[in-house]
Specification:
Layout: E1 5-6, H1 10-19, E2 25-30, H2 35-49, E3 57-62, H3 67-77, E4 85-90, E5 93-99, H4 105-112
Parallel strand pairs: 1-3, 2-3
Antiparallel strand pairs: 2-4, 4-5
Helix pairs in contact: 2-4
Length: 115
């Protein structure tokens, strides 16, 4: 089973984005204070427990606890901040993103099987 690696520094964020040239990065921005985000977290977890794409790196940013990192991700990637949100990064560039109730295990499977 794949797990989410927490990103809580801008250096870790920069490293993850840089490494996306070797393996795609799925970045999950999660709020521990939001019930919609709690549901999205369950969907991401369900995806990770059920045959996730092995070549993808999976990371999580806690948007409340690590606000500066979350805002930096929005700035660096040019994707308007939302929470919950998933962003797929390849070669340092976001190639797909979605948010809120659009985050589903089946949706992730569909997009990431093509990565």
């Amino acid at each position: 089973m794949k797990t989410l690696t927490r990103i809580n520094t801008i250096e870790q964020l920069n490293d993850g984005i840089a490494l996306s040239s070797e393996a795609p990065l799925l970045l999950f921005k999660h709020s521990t204070r939001c019930p919609i985000s709690a549901h999205a977290y369950k969907e991401v977890s369900a995806y990770l427990q059920d045959s996730p794409a092995d070549e993808v790196n999976y990371s999580i940013i806690y948007v409340v606890e690590d606000r500066s990192v979350s805002l930096e991700a929005a700035d660096r990637l040019g994707v308007k901040h939302e929470s919950p949100q998933v962003i797929l990064v390849k070669n340092g560039t976001p190639v797909w993103h979605t948010s809120h109730s659009q985050i589903t295990s089946s949706g992730l499977r569909s997009v990431l099987s093509k990565s």
